[in-house]
Amino acid sequence: MTGTADTPALSLPAIAVACPDCGAAPGFACMSHGRTRPRRNDVHQARTRAYQEQPEPDDGPVDGCPECGQPCEYEPLYDSGTKEGPAWLCTGCRWRVWSVGI
Fold first, then answer.
1. pLDDT per residue over 1-32, tens digit each?
2. Which of 46, 52, 82, 88 is the most interior residue, by most CB within 10 Å?
3. What is the rounded CA–CA span in Å between residue 2 and residue 16?
4. Dihedral of CA 52/58/64/65: which sign?
């Protein structure tokens, strides 16, 4: 999710994980301490720590995409429409495999 002038916090890397303080789901802004409005400019410190402490992703498809051979890139917050989570995506044909290291 990309931040906007109204919600620059959505462009922060920590948005990729859930917030342990307010319960905001990955991809959504943290809520104020009173839970009455979204935090537009930043995230809770606990969310930043949770992002920094998350385990490294698995190695993914080391030899590239098994379908077309192109390299794969890690996407920590991929949404397929039916499932959301960390995945490796082919840069060519967009083949995917869900990451098991997280």
1. 445 568 899 999 899 889 999 999 999 999 98
2. 88
3. 11
4. negative
Q: What percent of the chain has pLDDT over 70?
A: 87
Tokens 């109204």, residue?
6
Give residues with Cβ within 8 angstroms of 32, minimum separation 6. 38, 39
Confidence of residue 35 (pLDDT cuts 50, 70, 90): confident
- Whether residue 41 contacts residue 12, with contact meaning beta carbons closer than 8 Å, is answered with no
Q: What is the rounded CA–CA span in Å between residue 90 and residue 60?
A: 10
CB 69 within 8 A of CB 89: no
Distance between CA atoms of residues 15 and 76, nearest Å: 10
Question: Chain centroid to CA 35: how far?
Answer: 22
pTM metric for this prediction = 0.56
Question: What does the alpha-carbon distance between residue 77 and residue 81 come to, in Å, rounded to a whole number?
Answer: 12
